[in-house]
Amino acid sequence: MKFCELMRYPETYNGKTVKVRATWIYGYEWSYLHCLDCEGRVWLDTSEVDERSEKTIKHSPKYAAIVNVDVEGVFQTGSFGHLNGYKYQLRAHTMSNPAVISKGMKGREKELEIERKSACGGVKPR
To answer: Structure pTM?
Structure first.
């Protein structure tokens, strides 16, 4: 399903298993999915991923990155993530097809430039 569909109708998908391709942004105190085409961020909980997905995560850049990825898991509404700053969460069971678009932290303007080009909803998403 499209990530923006999830953001438009979150109550419809609450408690259900969904599969989306979105941009995963992670760092020291954040790990969320989003897409430039729509508003909303979804906290990504990777504590329940399968063994194959653990390998995907292990081969992702350390510490901070921007990665397009397919994620399947249970979508939830409520308060989640760092300081309960997210209204939605995806408890991932599988993660696959990663496409790293940025490694490490950069200034926010540079990250936005990179996202506009290659992230979910960008000019040429990977």
So the answer is: 0.94
